[in-house]
Specification:
- By secondary structure, this protein is an alpha+beta fold.
- It has six helices and eight strands; from the N terminus they run βαβαβαββαββαβα.
- Strands 2-5-4 form a three-stranded mixed β-sheet. The protein has a three-stranded antiparallel β-sheet with strand order 7-6-8, covered by helices on one side.
- A hairpin with a 5-residue loop joins strand 6 and strand 7.
- It is elongated.
């Protein structure tokens, strides 16, 4: 039993709450347990409860109901509980977000390097959306043009450039795929700028 809960919280009660929208599940929990559950409605929005069935102490039942939601209970009185974000879950989400942002940076760098190695003067005549599937090895497993350059040879050259992308490391855990990106016509202008900068450095 957690600190702040009463002995009543240890008495098993018959719970039969199927997995559903979190707000509705908490209402059902409150009716069965007699606990007043206080929470910001924005925290419950879009979250799904876990299935809770059987004779369980109310505090155990609530933890099961909240499993996977990223929320934890904080008991304020004998029959009152406030829901708040799990600090550990929030920290993990922040770490994952940082890893994903960094990985997108690697994809963009790999994309630029692949296009800078193409000798065609204008491989991308206009904005073109692409899809990338990245293998655990960090290599491009599959690519797809979601638009067309308007030219069969241009499409083939663009596909070839996508296959040359080298990211250098596998996607982080939880990384959503496919990656949808927009390739801009001025990317090769960036390539020329980078090439001039390298030439100045080499001199």
């Amino acid at each position: 039993m957690q600190r702040g809960t009463s002995s009543a919280a240890a008495r098993p009660l018959p719970f039969d709450i199927p997995a559903q929208q979190l707000g509705a599940a908490l209402e059902a929990y409150g009716v069965i347990s007699g606990f007043q559950v206080i929470y910001d409605a924005a925290l419950a929005k879009g979250r799904q409860s876990s299935d809770v069935r059987g004779a369980l102490a109310p505090d155990v039942a609530l933890r099961r109901l909240l499993a996977g939601t990223g929320l934890v209970p904080r008991y304020m009185a004998q029959d009152g509980v406030v829901l708040e974000l799990d600090p550990a879950a929030s920290e993990a989400h922040s770490v994952l977000r940082s890893a994903v942002i960094r990985y997108y940076g690697r994809i963009q760098a790999g994309l630029r390097q692949a296009f800078c190695g193409d000798a065609r003067p204008s491989i991308v005549p206009h904005r073109i959306a692409i899809g990338l599937w990245i293998a655990p090895s960090g290599l491009i497993a599959r690519s797809a043009l979601l638009d067309t350059t308007g030219d069969v040879d241009g499409d083939a050259a663009l596909e070839a450039a996508l296959q040359r992308i080298q990211i250098g490391e596998p996607p982080p855990a939880g990384f959503a795929q496919p990656v949808i990106m927009t390739v801009l016509p001025d990317m090769q202008n960036d390539c020329r700028t980078l090439q001039r900068q390298r030439q100045r450095v080499e001199r």
